[in-house]
Amino acid sequence: MQKILIVEDEKAISGVLHSILSEELTDYEFEIANDGLEALKILEKEDFSLVISDIKMPKLSGTELLKETMQIKPETTFVMISGHADIDTAVNCLKDGAYDFISKPIDINRLITSVKNALDKGNLQKDNKSLKSENNQLKKKVNKKYQMIGNSPALKMIQDMIEKVAASDARVLITGPNGAGKELVAHAIHAQSERSKGPMVEVNCAAIPSELIESELFGHVKGSFTGAIKDKSGKFEQANGGTIFLDEIGDMSLVAQAKVLRALQESKVSPVGSDKEIKVDVRVVAATNKDLHKEIADGKFREDLFHRLSVIEIHVPALDDRKDDIPLLVEHFAKNIADEQGNAAKKFDDKAIAALKQFSWTGNIRELRNVVERLVILGANPVSAEDVANFVRK
User: In this protein, which residues make up the domain named Response regulatory (predicted)?
Assistant: First the structure.
């Protein structure tokens, strides 16, 4: 049962308040504290749906109680009462987090109305908080293919960054070597964002010929070039309402960069061969393994586009810089591989893990995954350091 705390140093008043409110609010339990200090000790141990507090009290005033409680339990709802009220005191109480302020002598009807409204507001906030928590948990349930495995400080820092930036629509530039997990970061940002119900469209800028990149990104109309036998929507249009992930953007041609810049500036795209402009609502996440500052200096990347893309920068370190994550990564890959093959997962003994941690992983996590698959197929159970020596060439 939910509880209400009455804080009042005059027992006659606290008794009247308890008597009246307990008749109106039969679903609540009531507790009385005789001063602010006693109330604070109670609040440190228990949760209350509402605190009704006098202001002028010995030991600890009602305003001090309000401030202290907001520090330790900011979700607590307060209704303040005072016979020595002025406008400044009332305003300060509301600024400090109180729901309402009532002057003495107390208008009982106003008090009952205020208390009921305060309880409704408090319950609504709790429901919203619970729903938000559930929603956040759902968002964090990223497709297993895109799980970020490890507990190293470097990875925790990335996860903290993702949690902070996902809620916004800020553009993100992810940097790091090939195979380090930039794609995982992009998918985690999308999955934890308000756009998670929308599409996540990936574009590998390095894999698309430069003469086709504009058509891929912005679409084209029939007859706009040889082979354009019908209208085709581009990746930006397909990602409308969601996220577009421009992987290896450092490999994009300068011509295409100019058009991407325009799309970011105006939130519009024009298909190749068309004068029509299409409005798009897209969050852009980009990634590169290149040093874009050097590319800018060499005239290969537009500085204005770089600044548009890099509102937030997240660097994904090489596996060699987070080797403490190797045991968890090996266990994760071994289980996934076993699930794919319909077999029981193989174990890796401590010496095998130690041997793997000695290697330099130039291919990063992608290379480690391939090595684990090889050892699962060829090694004993558990996989030993001897298996690592026999089947891994570094």
Answer: 3-119
Q: Rounded to whole angstroms, how far apart are CA atoms 29 and 8?
A: 17
DSSP string covering 234-288, please?
Answer: -HHHHTTTSEEEEETGGGS-HHHHHHHHHHHHHSEE--BT----EE---EEEEEE
Q: Which CB contacts under 8 angstroms, 24+ apart, belong to 152-161? A: 152/322, 152/324, 152/325, 154/317, 154/321, 154/322, 155/322, 155/325, 158/185, 158/314, 158/316, 159/188, 161/312, 161/314
pLDDT, tens digit (0-9, with 9 covering 90-100), for 269-323:
989 888 889 999 999 999 999 999 999 999 999 999 999 999 999 999 999 999 9
CA distance 228 to 96: 64
Distance CA 200, CA 283 (A): 10
Bridge pairing between strands 3-7 and 29-33? parallel
- The pLDDT assigned to 158 comes to 95
pTM, two decimals, is: 0.64
Which domains does the chain carry?
3-135 (3.40.50.2300), 144-316 (3.40.50.300), 320-391 (1.10.8.60)
Q: Tokens 């490999």, residue? A: 251
Helical pair 182-191 and 153-166, crossing angle rounded to 10 deg: 40
DSSP state of 323: G
